[in-house]
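Technical annex, item 7. During the second reporting period the consortium partners agreed on a shared format for inverse folding records so that results from different sites could be compared directly. Each record opens with the tokenized structure and is followed by the designed sequence. A conforming record, contributed by the partner at site C, is shown below for reference.
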């Protein structure tokens, strides 16, 4: 089979790799129907995630068909169409009992495309399949489902829920990439008073407006003043950091009101200064997190009912063997307008972002 292989910072290729096989009785083998590229994959290619060793197949999101299961797998059968979660859970350790699956100590956590071969391939081995794949409801389209493997649970759990968004809140989302846009869409479920999107790219701000942002701010044009003006000088109740850069994190700490919440969602590859000399007296709550995906079953039901605009974020589709082209388009999002690219099927097209 073929997979997209990391060969060190700046080096990767779509190439022949060994077929995966059952290694443990809790494994399942999934034929990949649909996969996608995450901003975290770009961080890996830059060398920001040093634990990813050369020779690893990347990817941690997929929809596909179960083709083989180990003897201790009980919740799925060959032929089932499933969502492969970005987080693998053993289900037995203390963290899993608390639904903190990202910190699994039994061999799970974020392992696909990081410490074992991932989903950007024709087939993938999924450990602990009983808790790490989810049967798709009905005939749910793979394009809709695949974004529930990572970005929507991440935006919901690490952004909206960790940020304690409540009805009537003013919410600033700094970064209108895929995660930020998903955070805007999920924030809308909580009837906020106002959502402000901050980004450098006009195309992403336009997408933010379509997905529910009430006000748009160019990050280069004093977004602090706009947010202050919209909140009677107090600042946002919740600031969601969805970039993973020192500048965006520090901006969040400047635009949040005293007693507010800063929810860091972005993946940081550089040190960030925490200005406690300015923040210590402001009663702020700052949260970080890797998604646990405990919300995935709920989000699947909501998506099946049309409550989550998942495929609205998809701007480009490719076939699997166009993986290298897809990475190029996604990695140059500022030039190409790419928000989320999906791979699988026969299409290769550009589509407009649709309103929620």
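Designed sequence (site C submission):
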């Amino acid at each position: 089979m073929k997979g997209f292989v990391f060969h060190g910072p700046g080096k990767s290729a779509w190439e022949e790799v060994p077929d995966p096989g059952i290694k443990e009785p809790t494994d399942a083998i999934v034929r990949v129907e649909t996969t996608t590229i995450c901003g975290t994959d770009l961080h890996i290619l830059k060398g920001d995630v040093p634990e990813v060793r050369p020779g690893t197949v990347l990817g941690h999101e997929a929809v596909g068909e179960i083709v083989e299961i180990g003897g201790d797998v009980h919740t799925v059968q060959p032929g089932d169409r499933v969502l492969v979660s970005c987080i693998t859970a053993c289900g037995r350790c203390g963290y899993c009992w608390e639904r903190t699956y990202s910190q699994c100590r039994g061999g799970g956590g974020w392992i696909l495309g990081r410490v074992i071969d991932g989903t950007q391939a024709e087939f993938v081995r999924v450990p602990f399949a009983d808790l790490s794949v989810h049967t798709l409801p009905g005939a749910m389209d793979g394009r809709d489902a695949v974004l529930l493997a990572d970005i929507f649970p991440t935006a919901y759990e690490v952004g909206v829920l960790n940020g304690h968004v409540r009805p009537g809140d003013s919410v600033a989302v700094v970064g209108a990439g895929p995660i930020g846009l998903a955070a805007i869409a999920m924030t809308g479920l909580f009837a906020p008073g106002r959502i402000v999107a901050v980004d450098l790219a006009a195309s992403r701000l336009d997408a933010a407006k379509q997905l529910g942002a009430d006000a748009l701010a160019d990050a280069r044009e004093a977004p602090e003043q706009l947010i202050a003006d919209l909140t009677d000088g107090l600042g946002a109740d919740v600031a969601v950091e969805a970039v993973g850069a020192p500048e965006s994190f520090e901006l969040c700490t400047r635009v949040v009101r005293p007693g507010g919440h800063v929810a860091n969602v972005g993946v940081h590859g550089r040190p960030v200064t925490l200005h406690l000399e300015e923040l210590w007296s402001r009663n702020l709550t700052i949260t970080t997190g890797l998604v646990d995906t405990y919300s995935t079953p709920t989000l699947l039901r909501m998506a099946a009912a049309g409550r989550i605009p998942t495929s609205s974020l998809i701007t480009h589709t490719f076939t699997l063997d166009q993986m290298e082209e897809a990475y190029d388009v996604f990695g140059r999002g500022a030039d190409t307008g790419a928000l989320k690219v999906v791979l699988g099927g026969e299409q290769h097209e550009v589509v407009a972002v649709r309103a929620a």
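The first helix runs from residue 39 to 46. The longest strand covers residues 28-36. All partners now use this format for quarterly exchanges.
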